[in-house]
Amino acid sequence: MQIKPRQHLLDIWQAIARQSFDGGEWDWGKRGGQSSVADAERLLCLLYPATEIPAFRLDDPDTTQDDVQKVLKKAGGRLDIPANLVTAAAQFMRAHTGENKSPTFAGGYYFVSADDGHDLSEQQRQVGVVESYSLSITLCLATLGFLKVYETKTRRSDILETIQELRSATSKRLTAAMVCLLRSFTVNVFDVDSSQGSTLCELLGQGRLSPRHVVQNFQRRFRALRAAIVESMSLGVDVEEGLKDENQLFECGWAWSLVKDAPEVEIEEQIGQPDGVANPVPYLYFTVVALDGIQDLFSDRTLTLGLLTPEQQRLAEALRLRWEITQQYWSGIARFDSNRWPLEDIPWRTTGQKLESEYFSLSIAAILVHDLMRRRATDDDLTRTVSVMERLAERGRITSRLMRDDPMVQLHNPGIRLPLQGSERIGPPMQWIMNDFSAQLLKRTIQLGTLSRNLSAHDRLLRLAESIFGHMWRRRIRDGEGIGLWDNVHAAYPESPTLESPISWSITERVTEVMVQVHEMYRQPPIRSAELAEVARALLSESAHILGNEQMEPAPSAEGRRGMELRSIEIKLSRARRLVDEKPGTACALTLDVLGELDALARAREAATQGA
Questions:
Q1: How many C-beta atoms surround the C-beta of residue 91 within 10 A?
Q2: Which of 196, 403, 435, 510 is the most exposed place for a label (fewest CB within 10 A)?
Q3: Please, are residues 143 and 89 in contact by the beta-carbon 8 Å criterion?
């Protein structure tokens, strides 16, 4: 199924407007306010495209395009849409602010109990989660950029007052989210002989290297990174001493929430810094989520609009350091053995949680994609990563046939259950369910396609993305609540269990984000083929020569018509010359058209000569 980002985004927006607006006013529904994660995802489905794609802008009513206004008619008229979005964002900020006026980042109903006999307490559901911290960064930056433009376009006093309140609350939430991400970052140091050490050695050695050789290679590969962590971060005496011992192994990344005993970050603004509960163990899933949000802090839009305060810029630099170190570490782990990457040994096994799944292979691949985008990727890196993506799609039963009683159905529904270590301190053990494998795979495939400038790899990625998107499009809800949104898993996996709530704002937001990424990919210049450029230049040379020869021929009686044809040919050749480096295929097409026209002129002249 071909991905048409504009049309698909319009379809999604129409469904969201139908679901989220009642009489022009935002309607959160029965679950609104119960999870900061779900509420942020819901708002981002509108605000992210509206601030990233010029054609979908809503902050300037005078530039709102007709088809956008038409699909959002349930949100109000052209002047009402941005005002209603501001009101909805203000409601979000109020709903997710505690009694002490500090922002809250509750996972809410996204948390589930690991003990079927005991439900989670309200205190547990109010615990902050890294997914909310990361989404809040993206949401706050989108909101601040939206307000910066819309404030100059409206004269409504009530909306201007709401804008002032919203800007203050949004900036405060942005600061709090950044601080929470800093306090959720962790480095876990462990001995080679520990259970974690044994798992990591097996993973990296792949049955071909002994633990001793793995440790030696680990020391050599990560010596500089180990030193950078020790010198640039304050992580506690025990951690720093352990890192200095090269015989110790380590992992870095983000825990699921604030790490227990994580020190407070010194800032001027009073945002409230609650105690942490999470064990100091990195999670692949939450590490990927954190990386996604942090990179928005350094986007061209954030820098151009000047959305960060000086204090936020300082926090952003601290997060950027962790962002770069984490990518380097996991990219090095994924490609530990150049002959056969550990990433290519699917499925991946986690050391901290002792779990094994294709989802974790996808998480590692996602970090590798981040790293390939950060540095200049080689063709070998791209080709091998593309192969991993294709295998994951096949193993996940997205591009391959579903077997009877296929265990892979569990990957999509109910999903992979992730135990949240440390949550047992405040009640029954908590879990986080990851059921967005298909959406995440689509997202990473498009990111890789945007990065790739290799014709063969790009074509494979585009075909894979279209297959995954076709799978996702079938999973839209076809009737009842949430029609046009996600996630009707039964459409793709009839044997999967029935979902309690059909609407998944998590899946819907990821598909929306993918449409923005596809838009960016199509906005890039096409990949240039050196071979095609050479052919285009040869055709141009032949065309120019034949044109010069044609211009020396005596003019027929219909001089005016011939002159117009020759002038048209000159214009086409001139355009072909301009495009030969950027779009050699188009230059070839134009030049072939010119050759055809020149040949027609020659044949007409020959016929006239023979007739005479």
A1: 19
A2: 403
A3: yes
